[in-house]
Every structure is written in structure tokens, then in C-alpha cells.
User: Fold these one by one.
Assistant:
Number 1:
Amino acid sequence: MANIEIELEVNGRQEQVSVEPGKTLLHLLRENLGLTGAKDGCRSGDCGACVVIVDGRSVNSCMVLAPQAEGSSVMTVEGLAQGDELHPLQRAFAENWAFQCGFCTPGMLASCYALLEFNDNPTRDEIRAAIAGNFCRCTGYQAVVKAVEQAATELRVLKGGSRNA
Ligand code: FES
Ligand code: FES
């Protein structure tokens, strides 16, 4: 079957890509754009290793066909840092030992980023709910929850306000 030309924005850059109609967004990112942060885990929407942010929402990119992403704005873990400056979430993950092997981490970060975009002061239960679809076999999740709380606090300070301040 003939390839399809699609246009989408990825990490702030406009991209034009020619893909097979059955290709997933995950494989477009990894194979066509060389963005290998999002991981190819289960390919069935179960593990969350492939999570990226599409138009502000966290999605399992293995469950989205690339042509469905036409016109979308996609953010991957590669879009979090600004040059050499890690995003507060990335720093908090490192400081709290919120990863070990790191396979789940790009998806975990994407889910947490999407959470903090619409809720800058999440409860522990809200954080747990946000990462419910991200499987981690190393950390036991507590360190991730702590990291998100730390990052949320830092981001609120950076924004100059807090609901609980
Ligand atoms: S690879 Fe997409 S959810 Fe597991
Ligand atoms: S850090 Fe290894 S799976 Fe999460």
C-alpha cells in the first residue's frame, strides 16, 4: 500500500513524514524521526513505556496510527529538557532515585508531565492515578510519587504561586 504523507509538530518542530498507513505513532517517532525515548514495550496499550503527549494528553503511542496524528502537536521525553537544562521533573526523578533500569522512565515522565500541566498540586492519589498505566518493575512507585510531589512544588514556585501557598 502506498505511503501517506503526514505533517505534525514534534517537540516544537514541524515535521513532514512519509509513512506506511499501518505504522504506529510510536514507530514513526522512533524510526522516522530517531526519537527513541518512547519505548517499544508491549505494543498492546498495557505497559505505558510508549507514552507521549499528544495535544496535551498522555497517550500510548503504540495504540495510535501515525496517520491519526496528522496535524497534532506531539511532545516526547526528548522535548522536556531545554538544552542542557533538565526539566524539574527529570531532576526530581534523578534526586529521588525514581528510576533504576530506566525502561519505563520516558513514559512515566510523559504521564507525569501531562498531569502537572493541568494539575499543579496533585494529591498522592492523583499522582498514582496518573501513572496507573505505567508499569515499573524496579522502583515500587513510591520514589516516583515523591519525585512528582517535589517537581510540582518546584514548578509552582517557578510559576510564582500555589493553591496551598
Ligand atoms: S508499548 Fe505501548 S503501552 Fe506498552
Ligand atoms: S525503572 Fe525499570 S521498569 Fe521502571
Number 2:
Amino acid sequence: MNLKGSLLIFIGPPCCGKGTISRLCVEKLGFTQLSTGNLCRHHIEIGSDIGKEIDFALKSGKLISNELITEMVKAWLEVNASNCTSVILDGYPRTVPQARDFYDFLSSSDEMNSVKIIHFQVSEECLMKRACGRLVCKNSECQQVYSIEGKMAPKIEMICDICSGQLIKRLDDTLSTVEDRIKTYYKHESGLLNCFNELGMFTFSLAAENDVDVVFANLKKIIGA
Ligand SMILES: [Zn+2]
């Protein structure tokens, strides 16, 4: 795979700030962010074999299998990793089977040392507060996330800093759906963390309730950037 920097695995609940920190890593450190969601859409668009399988799974109302997701991530890394400094895996591995498969892949490609697992830690109360004040750019190509107030607020009220698109509240950010998403997340999180532990993969804790600048500075310390 021949990565020059690190392979970062960000783990944390919805609204923990992973997205914002990933964006800072991309903008300020030149990292590459690999979103499995975007990668799925890309494969469907170009009509690759993987894309056809994903499309079939989605159309028949099934979940995309762990194997398929891992295959897709592996294929991407094998082609692109050597051109990247560091890569942030966004939303992968999400389940225990994915973590095990990914571990096998890393061992076989001798890249275990470049992996850093970062666990974003935020209290549930803070997550709920953040979720309710979250705005997103309406432009589907952009989808930049903002907060209603504080440092992550847009420069002009309800207007996207990047594309000048209109900002809206995310439809799935109502209290009850956010609560559900957070609960579902925590149901899987302990299994995933235990799995990394069993595999001997060290997990760094990142206190993500702090100011975004502080969180980013602490992350840089952890990864030596
Ligand atoms: Zn925008």
C-alpha cells in the first residue's frame, strides 16, 4: 500500500466533531479523507462490479455486506494510498467483522504501524446540544456542516462560507432521531473498541468536547503532525 503518513481511523458518535476535524486535517495538513458513503456512490455511478453489487443490495432493501465494504476500501487504498500523505477513514471499520477483515488486510500488507485509531469522546448531553444546533449547506455537492452559534457558525447568517449556498437544519437532526442514532452508535461502539483491544490495536482517546482548535491541536500531537 505504501502510505507516506498515517492511516487514521476516527471513531465517535454522530455530532462528535469527527467531520470538522477531518476537514481541518484535509485543509491544513493535506490529508485525504476516504468516506465509504461517497465511495459507494462513486462505484454505483461508474457502474463498476462493486457498484453493481451495492446497487443491487440497496435496491433490494438489504444492508451492504461487510465483505463488500472491506473489498471497496482495500481496492481504494491499494490504488491511491501511495499518492497520499495520510488517509482518514471516515465510517470504516464500523462493525466487528469489518474491523477483523481490515486487521487481516493490514497485517498482510505490513501497514499495521501506520494505523492510528482515534476515539472521539463527548458526553451524550453535549452531543444532543450540538445536534440541535447543527446546520448543513443545501448544495448537495457541498454539504458543509456548521453550528448555529460559536466558532463553527457561518460568517454570514444561514449562508455557506464555501459555496454561498443556503444553510438548512438537517432533517434527521430532530431530537428523537438524533437520540436514536446516538443509542444505535453506542450499542456497536463497545464491541468495536473491544475488538481493537483484542487484536492488539491501540486506541487513542481524544477529548472532543473542547473547543475545536484545542481538539485539533491535541489530535496533531497524537499523530505527530
Ligand atoms: Zn456550501
Number 3:
Amino acid sequence: MPKVLTAKEIDRYHRDGAVAPVTLMSRAEIAEYKRKFDALEATIGAEAQSRYRIKAHLPFPWLTELTRHPRMIDAVEDLIGPDVICWGSSFFTKKPRDARFVSWHQDSTYYGLEPPESITCWIAFTNARMETGCMRIVPGSHKGPAILPHVETYDKNNLLARGQTIQDVDESKLVYLEVDAGEFSIHHNKTIHSSQPNHADTPRIGFAVHFAAPHVRQTQFKGATAAVVRGKDRFWHWQADPEPAKDFDPVCLAALDEAWQRYRTAMKAQH
Ligand SMILES: O=C(O)CCC(=O)C(=O)O
């Protein structure tokens, strides 16, 4: 018996490679996360996404707690089973009237996971609709290869670091993953996805959290870390992430920097 998703939503996820929207929390509760997010950006004097990627949650107790939200983990369990690790998270944010976009890409090409089975829950801190540049997917693309050719465009408006782009995507059947503040979408890491600029007067703030079953291994580098967020890890492919004792926890910041470094080194080795 599924815990959160309906049988229809589970079928849709397996058919399309994504499902949305799924309710996570009330408007008042997500407004508190948005307030903390704004305070974080005010403190660092920069966009959170400029520094807090790969394991954005690690140095912050409130974000680490969010990666373990029982309702979200219940939904993940409905899709991948009772043992779940969280190996990463990233902010994807667009300011009001922001030309920045995310080009068509496939996460599994870059994740280095074997088997290539990871899922992302994209939590909306603000409404993500067509006009604010919500995510969109090519339904069914998760049934294709796990590694697809990408061209590195280095477009300054592309939120992806190297502007990694799958070319000539057939957009005739694309599906928009509209989610309002407090809701989330779920996508498979093989699903081809993108998002367009924000044409609205409101910001579009998303926090993407990455999960897998513990039998999934990181093959691009040694010493990959994760947290068991449900059930048990019977495989020991992942070392334990440190736990933040306070915001900007120095041990966790160092672990975040190491994760970035490992990721960048792995990306360079791919070239
Ligand atoms: O937020 C976006 O526009 C893109 C997010 C994304 O690429 C992801 O969560 O994998």
C-alpha cells in the first residue's frame, strides 16, 4: 500500500519519468523556509545557488531537516522502496523577470551512479508555474540511455555551470511540472528536462533533493557521502555525511567544499 502517492501517480512516474504536483506542507510552513532562505542570501550577500550546490543542505540544520521531511520520504519510498539515502541537494533559483534558464539535459549523464537510478524531489519555495519558468520534461525519456550526448554552450544565462545541452529535443510532447509553494515534483535522473526564463514579477525558488536506494554506487570518485533517511543501508557504498550542529557548521562547510572539489575533478576527468 503506497504511503503518499496514489496508484495513478506511481503509474505516471513510471510512464513519464516524473510526477507533479505532490503536496508537502502548508503555505504558512513553506513561507518559513522562504524566510530562512532570504535570510541566508542576505547573510552571504550572494545567491544561495552560487555556493550551495551538490550538498546545499549540509551546513544548515533547517535544510538538512527538510531533506528528511517524512511526507517527502514516504513518496520516495513509494517509488524506490523502504531503504533510502539522500546524497545531495541544490538550489535552482530565478529572480523576478530573470532571463536565466536551464537547458535540456539529463542528470544521469553527470551523476556517475551505477545503476543510474536516482530520483529528485524539487521543492517549490515559491510558485513555479509556466510563467515563472517551472521545470518541463520529455515524458518517457527516462526509458532511454543513461548517458546522452550534451554540448557545452557556456551560455551566461544558463543556470547549468557549463551550459550542458541536449540538442534537437523533440518539444512536441513536453509536459510542464507546475508546482505551487509547498508542493514538490519528482523526476527520474534519466528524464530529459529543462526550464525557461522567469517572466513574472515574483521569484522562482526551487530546492532539489537527490535520493537513491543504497545499492546505487557513486562510480566517478571514491569517498562519496550520503545520509540514510529511511530504513537501512546494507551495502555500505556511501560514507556518512556529517550532521550540522548549527547554521554554517564549519565541519559541514568543509565537507560541502570537498564534495564540490570531487565533483569538479570528476567532471574534468570526463573531458
Ligand atoms: O530548477 C530548474 O529549472 C532545473 C532543475 C534541475 O535541473 C534539476 O532539479 O535536476
Number 4:
Amino acid sequence: MDNFIVSARKYRPATFQQVVGQTAITATLQNAIRNNHLAQAFLFTGPRGVGKTTCARILAKTINCENLKETIEPCDACESCESFNNSASFNVHELDAASNNSVDDIRTLVDQVRIPPQVGKFKVYIIDEVHMLSQAAFNAFLKTLEEPPAYAKFILATTEKHKILPTILSRCQLYDFKRIQVEDISKHLAYVAENEGVAAEEEALHTIAQKSDGALRDALSTFDQIVSYSGDSITYKNVIENLNILDYEYYFQVTDFIADADLSQLLLIFSEIIENGFDGQHFITGLNEHLRNLMVIQDPATLQLLLASPSVKERYREQSARFSIPFLIQAMEVCNKYDLSYKTSNNKRLHIEIALMQLAKIGNSDIQQTTQPIAKPKPREDKKPFYVSSEPKESKPEPKTTDTPKDAETKNESFNKPLAEPKESIAKPKPPGPKPQIDPSPKEEGNGRKIKNISIKASLNALKKKQEEVEDDDVPAITTAFDQEKLNDTWVQFTNSYQKDSPSFSHAIAKHMPVLKEGFVIEYQVDNILIAKDILNVTALLEYLKDELNNNQITLKAVVADNKKEKIAYTDREKFEEMAKKYPGIIALKDQMNLELEF
Ligand SMILES: [Zn+2]
């Protein structure tokens, strides 16, 4: 390591094309150069480490290049380019306003501005952290900025745009640098690793990228740090040890235990986490993030919000099948509550343990009943089962169909998907009894998870199988007639009695009354399509309606409510009609007096 150069410097981009994750900005700058519309002063704003100074230097180099390429990139060969590359150009002046913020510093700079360039076309002044300039320095600078000589360009850079005086802002062309995307950073890290001959796990680079919060420079220095610690190969384990990150394995385990409502395992695993030196708040915020990820992966629309490597995404997808959206929301509320009150708690460990107890409790009330009644029948003494019955068929005198909702909106993909593992397609109802013991050690990846995952898959399979059976048996249709009123009553009964099972679901569907349509189609409004996609709860609802209304031909159709559609009377005629609806006397009056409507 005789000549070690930090990666952030070694891989500092030398052309616009090499700049990572700021294509909008580099393209605009290149366009301005191409069209000769370059401003005299620029303000580059944005978080630290995202390429502001780098872009400023490339801009300075490009506009001074003697053989500018067609692509508006510096040639990297001419005299000017070479002096830039060796940091020996007289045409670029950098001032770090964080340490040189006095009037004198600015005066020296202003004096230099007066001297035209000896070689090249432009003199470029880069003032970093410009918001640190003192008031007096700002004022001294303003004059120069107002009437700069044609050969002078100013590039001001700051992380704190709001601290820049409006008089300065109005004289600059603004460029907002964004945080660099995790994907872009990890791609760049992979490139650096390859060039450095470092074998790096994708997972590891992704974690570094995530931890760097959009700053490429930070990501590169973390990368260097880990390389110096672990040599020529970087693994995910190296990274989390080095950065003191709690292994996501823990979160996968914890959420599985929550789903199982296995409080003892939860407490044990939390104890292990504490012993490894992580604090409770770190854990609870991480858990919350994990739950959030389980939620966003359930909808293709929000999938992009999940920042993880493909293999971890697959894990999330697998685990998310165990949870309904309302459950996840409830669990996140619990985590959030305990996160917020963490600081004020006297016994921090107990504080998080209570949170875990609450999570296990919702695991018990929601998940157990929504996902497992088929695979693991739970005795329900006083209540009629809302779910697809797991009792033997003979015990029911009336034939029963377990049709899933026909409507595309309410159909869950899992039903359409052919199952990958045929061995799992035979649902084996587990006898109610002790759960399979799961090794709490996070080092042993995923065995427990697989065992447990069968429960949800099995539930769905059982449901599907039962449906097929029913179809085979050719069950006679029961089409007892019922009216809207009866439907409303049954709907209310369901929402009331279902409170205990899933408060969020019953609340969501209680908001709007259903509408009975032809052919026993029941149209119901939801505020959010995710409610209609909550297949287990929707199936429970459908089964309940079929039972109570004694009609097995009922289908549910979800309609996403458009909240904005409330009709407002705008025109005179609409206003009149609104009034007439309220006071029918108006029409009589109009007729009586022989009035004509003029609108
Ligand atoms: Zn050049």
C-alpha cells in the first residue's frame, strides 16, 4: 500500500459522462455549452458528496478545452486539459468559504478576477460552502458578481441554499443536485471494486450504498475502510460488522415470530440483539422499516420504493405473503409509538419488550385468524366461522361454495399463479398443537421460515383445492333472494362482529354501504384498492354473506371510491335543480306562475 489513493479521489470523474447519478444536470450544462448560453454565475446546491465540486471542475475544464469533442466532453489531451488533470491550471481558482470567509479572502479573489487569463478562454472561480461567507464578505463579492468580466465564470456551491442571500440567488443560474440513487451508487462501487481487483458481494455493496444516504463520496470512503479491514474480498458480514448495522436476518426472524405470535422467541432474539451491542431504538426503527418494506412489496406500484438487492427483495416477497396490509399498518403503528416514546422511558429494554408483546398480540389476533384457519383450525366457541370451513363436508347439511371473488380487482395473484413446488400443493391441515420449534439463532438462515411459510401457502392451497373440489362436485346453486335492506343489515352485522378479527378491515368496509346489483353481485366501495386485495379478509366477508343470506351465487365487486367526485352545483340550472330537490315547492311555484327557466 505504498501509493494508496483514496477511491473518492482516484475515481473522481474527469468528464461529464463519468459523473454518477446526475444526468439531468450534466445534460443541461452540456447543452448550455453547446448553445453558447452559459451563464456567468452558477449556484450548485444539494447535499454533501453528490458531485457539486466535481461538476464545477469538469465544467471549468470543458469550457477551457482547446479541442472540445462533439459530445461536449473535454479532450483530456490538450494543454489546458492536462494542466487541469494535474491540478496545475491557472484558470481555475477554488476557495473554500468554510475556512476562508473573511472580507480579505474575498478581496484577494476579486483582485484576481481583474486579471484576464493568459492561456485558455475562461477563468473559473469555484467557491465552496458559499453560505459560510460573512455578511461583509458577501457584500464585497456582490459587486463583482453583478458586473463580472466576460472571461470570468463563478460557480458557487452550497449544501444550504436557504442561507444564500436573495441578491446572490437572483444573479445565479440554479442547479439542484439530488441525492444519488442507491442503485447508481452500488453500480459505481461495483465498477471501482472490479478495477481494484476486489471481489465484493452485491449485498455488501448495496448495504454500503444504502448507508451512504445518497452521497457517493461517503460510499467510496466506507468502501476503502472496509477494503483496508477485510482485504480483497468484501462480504455482507464484513460490511455489517464494520458499519455496526443490525443484520437483516434478525428482522426476518423477528417478523416471523410476530406472525406466529411467539412471544418467548421474540424476547429471546431481542435479548441476543441487545447482547450484541445494539440499542433498542435502533432495533425498533429497523423493525419498522422492515415492516414497511413488507408492505411496499405487496403492490407492484410501490415496489420501486423498496431499496434492496434482488435476492433480498425475493426474501421480502416471500415473507410478505404472511401478512395482510392492515396487519402491517397496525404493527407499524405499534413500532412508531414505542420509537417515539423510547427516549423518555426509564427502562428501555422493558419498553421494547412491551412493544414486542403488543406486536405478538396483533400477530395473535390478526394473522392467526386471517391466514391460518384452514391450515390450523382454531376452535372458536361462540362464533360462526367466517372463513372457508375446515370442517368435514358432511357436517354441513347445506352445500357450500368457496368461490373466491370473481372480480379482477378482488382477485389475489396467488390464486392464479401456478405453484412452484408441487409438493406443497397438497395442503396438510396441521393439528392444533405445539408449533414446530424454530431455532432462534439468526446464523442459521431461513430453515424455520420455510417451515412456517407453508402455513400461508397451505391456507391458500387449501382454499384453492376446496374450490376445485366444489367445482368438481357440481354443487347446486342456492339463490335465495334478498333485498338491499337485508344486505345492509347483514353487512353491518359482519362489520360489527369482525371488529375483533381485523379492526382495520371492518372499519374500512363499514365506511360505505354496499349496493346490490343484478345477478347477486354486491358492489362495495373501498377507499383503497389494497383493502379489496386483502384476499383473506375479503373471502371471510364473502363467506359470511353467502351463509347469512343463504345464497352461494353471491360475488363481490370492489369499487375504489373517488373522493373528489362529490358533485358541486356550478351552473344556475344545477343550482336550481339542487334547490328543487330540497324544496319541491319551488317547481310548483314555477309552474303556478308560468315561469320559464332561462338557463
Ligand atoms: Zn482538452
